[in-house]
Amino acid sequence: MVTRVVVGAHYGLRDWLAQRMTAVIMALYSVVITVVLLFGQPISYSVWRDLFAQGWMRVATLLVAASFAWHAWVGVRDILMDYIKPDGLRLALQVLVLVTIAGYLGWTVQILWR
Amino acid sequence: MANVTTTKTRPKYLSLQALLFEIRLPLPGWVSILHRISGALLFLAALWLLWLLDRSLSSESGFEAVKRYSGLPLVKISLLVLVWAYCHHFCAGIRFLFLDLDKGADKATARLTSIIVIVAGLALTALLGAKLW
């Protein structure tokens, strides 16, 4: 039997788990929204506005935006680690991605609570 | 000895030609790489989608403008591609969650679920596309 001594910061496991949990959150939201959009009232401006005016919808959408941020960060970071070999370029791109994701999140808050 | 190793002709499996024309990805490989491509696409497209959401919720005229804009053929096709990216990422993601739990990891099942994921992604795209337009 091989006894493995696990060392390190364990952030790999945390990110792996987070990516899966955020995936489940986004999947549930997608199903609910798709059902609402397809089988609810036809979408006019007032229906659309009222949908996003409800408290639960704002909180759920914010939760999904936060999930997207974490999920996309882990995913894009994996892609960059796989394909971008020069350290400096990879670091620069990772910073760019983080700034972009932070921007997405801030913009979503602005859209939801304007 | 050094000469022997350098003159030996080795197959160059990772040439561009090999990648494009010779190496055939197995179906689970296609699901995997398409999952990655669709994910990257969705990350980049989020900027555009957020802009659409922002405008559509800004005012009545903004909503109508987005409606008109999304009727343009090029915009429609782009949205359809993103719908596919979402559906494929969704289906493939569920498959990966099951694989993480060691469900369906044997060869026959993995191949079957790959086909299901690819077909389901396309079918959902067709269904949603037909519903939306």
Order of helices and strands of chain A: HHHH
Q: Give the percentage of residues in beta strands of chain A.
A: under 5%
Order of helices and strands of chain B: HHHHHH
What share of the residues of chain B lie within helices? over 70%
**Integer-rounded radius of gyration of chain A:** 19 Å
The total strand number of chain A stands at 0
Taking the sheet with the most strands of chain A, its summary is: none
Mean pLDDT of chain B: 91
Task: Give the uncertain stretches of chain B in residue-range form.
Answer: none
The portion of residues assigned to helices of chain A is: over 70%
What is the assigned CATH homologous superfamily of chain A?
A: Fumarate reductase/succinate dehydrogenase, transmembrane subunit
Describe the structure.
- The complex is a heterodimer of chains A (114) and B (133).
- With 114 residues, chain A is an all-alpha fold.
- Chain A has one domain (12-112): Up-down Bundle (3 helical TM bundles of succinate and fumarate reductases), CATH 1.20.1300.10.
- Helices cover 82% and strands 0% of the residues of chain A.
- Chain A is built from 4 helices and no strands.
- Chain A has helices at residues 11-39, 45-53, 55-83, 87-112.
- The model of chain A has no long low-confidence stretch (mean pLDDT 94).
- With 133 residues, chain B is mostly helical.
- Chain B has a domain at 26-45 and 73-132: Up-down Bundle (3 helical TM bundles of succinate and fumarate reductases), CATH 1.20.1300.10.
- Helices cover 82% and strands 0% of the residues of chain B.
- Chain B contains 6 helices and no strands.
- In chain B, helix 3 (27-58) packs across helix 5 (73-100) and helix 3 runs parallel beside helix 6 (107-132).
- The chains are: A mainly alpha (114), B mainly alpha (133).
- Chain A binds chain B through residues 20, 23-24, 27, 30, 34, 38, 45, 48-49, 52, 68, 72, 75-76, 79, 97, 100, 104, 107-108, 110-111, 114, and chain B through 36, 39-40, 42-43, 46-47, 50, 53-54, 56-58, 60, 63-64, 86, 90, 93-94, 97, 100, 128, 131.
